[in-house]
Amino acid sequence: MSPRRVLITGASKGIGRAVADRVAGAGNIPVGLARSGPADFPGEFYEVDLADRAATADVLDAVLAAGPIDAVVNNVGFVRFGRIGSIDLDHLFDTYDVNVRVAVQVVQATLPGMLAAGWGRIVNVTSLTTLGTPERTPYAAAKAALEACTRIWAKELAATGVTANAVAPGPTETELYRERSPIGSEREARLLESVPMRRVGSPREVAHAIHALLDEDAGYITGQVLRADGGGSIAG
């Protein structure tokens, strides 16, 4: 079987890069999209600002000109915070655009090839915050919308050989997480109180869950949200 091309947004670091390493390690081809590419990326890489809709369309054309995409990992994320009463309304649009619009745009561009092949995988990276983390309305609402997209796409594509699932990480050791939760900070301490394992996850651990849903034998799993969160989703 020929290597599969797996498109990963936000692939230059963190969870996206860890997914790329696993994809390459399994003998497939990671196709990374991000604003800047690392010199040692283990596959194809395209530099693009995914917040730019036209630039995203152009880069997707270039990716598909090189061949069909067999699977998509919608990993790129954009975070805005705010407690109700002080939320900047523009932040609702910013977070929705990057977390949801990009995923829809990527899937719509790559889906014809998956349908033609009768095989495909879509994995959306969401968040534990959708279950009700304070101060996360803009970000969590966007990620909750992406989980709704996951279930809708799973039903729409169920008979095609294309699956759609989500992985919802808890706090994970990434630059995005550390921007708001420095090591040893009060914010991190409060957050980890709600995680039974009392620790932050690693990108490799989250990538393991994502990669499992890309597997050949994951074809009977669709419309699910797999929670890689240290037990945060079951904390009472």
Please summarize what this structure is:
With 236 residues, the chain is an alpha/beta fold.
Plain-language structure description:
With 236 residues, the chain is an alpha/beta fold. Helices cover 42% and strands 16% of the residues. The protein has helices at 14-25, 53-65, 89-117, 137-157, 175-180, 186-192, 203-214; strands at residues 5-9, 29-34, 44-47, 71-74, 120-125, 162-169, 225-228. It has a seven-stranded parallel sheet with strand order 3-2-1-4-5-6-7, with helices on both faces. Helix 1 packs across helix 7 (203-214), helix 2 (53-65) packs parallel to helix 3 and helix 3 (89-117) packs parallel to helix 4. It is globular. The model has no long low-confidence stretch (mean pLDDT 94).
| Helix and strand composition category | alpha/beta
* Percent of residues in beta strands: 15-25%
| β-strand number | 7
Order of H and E elements? EHEEHEHEHEHHHE
What percent of the residues sit in helical stretches (DSSP H or I)?
A: 40-55%
Key attributes of the depicted protein:
236 residues, alpha/beta, seven-stranded parallel sheet, 7 helices, 7 strands, 16% strand, globular
